[in-house]
Amino acid sequence: MQYDPADLKPRERYKVLTSFVLPRPIAWVTSLGPTGVVNAAPFSFFNVFCEDPPLCMFAANLRPDGRIKDTVINIRRTGEFVVNMTDEPLAQAMHESSGDFPPDVGEPDYLNLKLAPSTKIAVPRLADAPFAMECRTWKEIDVNGDRLLVMGEGIHFHIRDELWDHAAMRVHMERYHPIGRMFADRYCRTDDRVVFPPAEGAKTAV
């Protein structure tokens, strides 16, 4: 079966891409509104892309009624946001925060999520997140006027203490249980893991 993307409607392209590019990490982005309301919204068109500088990117489309999302409005005003990662204990709240909330109702407050101050920016982070990255906007890319790619530079990291081996600079994978996005309202656990020996590369005859 084959498709030329040009022959598909945007929604059909979305369904193809999100059905096979799986699982996707989720950026649970906190941002700060003009009256001090903290917004928290999940985005699964997201990933990190390099380490020097540490850059991440997520895509925010318009709401179905054409309104700009609060996250984008807040980031464009402040140039700051926090990417919070989600694990199993936080997954239900993360999903609930994807609902439609008015700008004057903060998802963390409504869902009883604890906030903690960031170190280098004004935007708070989610206190219970396993990993949180304070970001300043690095670049914005407008896509067709209905979607914004937000690139952020990570300027400070917060890691839940029990998840990290500081000496080895390695995560304790047996303690970290991130959630991945599948499609629609479907998510996946990441505990069924496979470990391969180091790749040998091409073998040459002696």
UniProtKB/TrEMBL annotation:
Pfam families: Flavin_Reduct. The keyword Lipid biosynthesis does not apply. Residues 19-178 form the Flavin reductase like domain. The keyword Signal does not apply. Keywords: Flavoprotein, FMN. GO terms for molecular function: FMN binding; oxidoreductase activity, acting on the CH-NH group of donors, NAD or NADP as acceptor. It comes from the Bacteria. SUPFAM superfamilies: FMN-binding split barrel (SSF50475). Its cofactor is FMN. Belongs to the flavoredoxin family. This is Flavin oxidoreductase. It comes from Bradyrhizobium jicamae.
